[in-house]
Amino acid sequence: MDLKCDWNALLVILGFFVVIKWVLKSINLWYYENYKLGGDKKNCKLPPGDMGWPLIGNMWSFLLAFWSTNPDSFISTLVTRYGPKGVYKSLMFGSPSVIVTTPEACKKALTDDEAFKPGWPKSTMELIGRKSFVSITYEEHKRLRKITAAPVNGHEALSMYTKYIEQIVISTLEKWSSMVKIEFLTEMRRVTFKIIMYIFLSSESEHVMEALEREYTTLNYGVRAMAINIPGFAYYKALKARKKLVAIFQTLVDERRNRRGKNPTGAKIDMVDILLDEEDENGKKLTDEEIIDVLLMYLNAGHESSGHITMWATLLLQKHPEFFQKAKAEQEEIVKNRPPNQERLTFNEVRKMEYLSKVIDETLRLVTFSFVVFREAKRDVTLCGYTIPKGWKVLLWFRSVHMDPETYPSPKEFNPSRWDDMTPKAFTFMPFGGGSRLCPGNDLAKLEISIFLHYFLLNYKLERENDESPIIYIPHSRPKDNCLGRIRRVTP
């Protein structure tokens, strides 16, 4: 009898929680679909989906998926519940949102600047900066992009950086090979940070670099977090890191301004000089806030993505010996065909690395470093037959586009050869975004990765401490142990 009563009580409790869950989610859905929209928008055709729980929305489901071994389960659950529509309403990062997972929908949101603007979460805008590319208007972005793109792109700039990047890679690999163990990802990020520091600040000060790199690590954990400014939360720690970064950059800008004041006709040696001297058609210069936010954004984006992708390309090649040998053979052929009086790599040789380029593209696709990009509807917009109300966020889920089996058969397999006879259709391959806000440093990132892999393939191998180290997917995909292991030099 007691056992029967216990079961009855348990069923009552479970039933109570099921009802409460249904009531709370129904109220939340009504609040955003009816009360918040109001007027004639109540009858607009919204995408399928739900708004999750009050306040947290669908964030719990998202986090559970990305804390698991299958981050794609978040989207696959939407597909199972609402069908392969490719457009789903939700409540994400504190805002009513529409998640899009198809190339067509991504193209619309990325290219229609009249209908969409950047819509990054509050945490991202506050941490990266309200005067950085993630927040500014189309007109402001166009101006700043024109100013800053030239030093990180183009044949002349990349040719100039090739020698410097090569020197860093050669010396770093030699140094690593003499060490017992390294965290490969951590050290790789330091390498790419040193390169971007040189380009933007002409600085290689170990003290400054270590301070900046340390704060950037903390900053990145808060960029995709909920904006909860309470001790213990990632956003709270990240805000403190941003304050320290701003203080460091302010000191650098002040010192450079004083130096240029003493020599106003001196040559511009890096991005800081370019930003300090820039004037618009009315003679107005950039404010310190604009300069600092641009620097903070570029230095962050310029080392995080290339550092991670270089690590993953190295790991994936070693995991697949047939691809490793093919990539290595290409590098050996480049060295073999080199003129007798040429000792080092040239930019033109990098451009001839056809197979290695496929390796990098396949790594970019499989890893999808920026798995989601945010936009916001500037007005009511029709997308794939559904209405996106003004002010709603649009989350472009690049990860789903890159994992579409119709475009990429066996999408979870690493296979550089899939690119042999394939030119991806527009907006089916977006490792650097798309539209007017395409990442301006994409060519520089590929150059860094190519030079590192050239020397690694020819002369080194990585021996991991734990090949089975679990993968962490937030804020970016990485082995939990940061790829702990040893770099060994290979005898020719």
TrEMBL record:
Family named by the database record: Belongs to the cytochrome P450 family.
Xref: CDD domains: CYP90-like
Lineage start: Eukaryota, Viridiplantae, Streptophyta, Embryophyta, Tracheophyta
Role of this protein: Catalyzes three successive oxidations of ent-kaurenoic acid giving gibberellin 12 (GA12), a key step in gibberellins (GAs) biosynthesis. GAs, which are involved many processes, including stem elongation, play a central role in plant development.
Domain of life where this protein originates: Eukaryota
Pathway: Plant hormone biosynthesis; gibberellin biosynthesis; Hormone biosynthesis
Molecular function GO terms recorded: ent-kaurenoic acid monooxygenase activity; heme binding; iron ion binding
Keyword Kinase: no
Protein's recorded name: Oxygenase
Names of the cofactor(s): heme
Segments crossing the lipid bilayer: 7-31, 51-68
GO cellular component: endoplasmic reticulum; membrane
Membrane topology: Single-pass membrane protein
Classification via InterPro entries: Cyt_P450, Cyt_P450_CS, Cyt_P450_E_grp-I, Cyt_P450_sf
SUPFAM superfamilies: Cytochrome P450 (SSF48264)
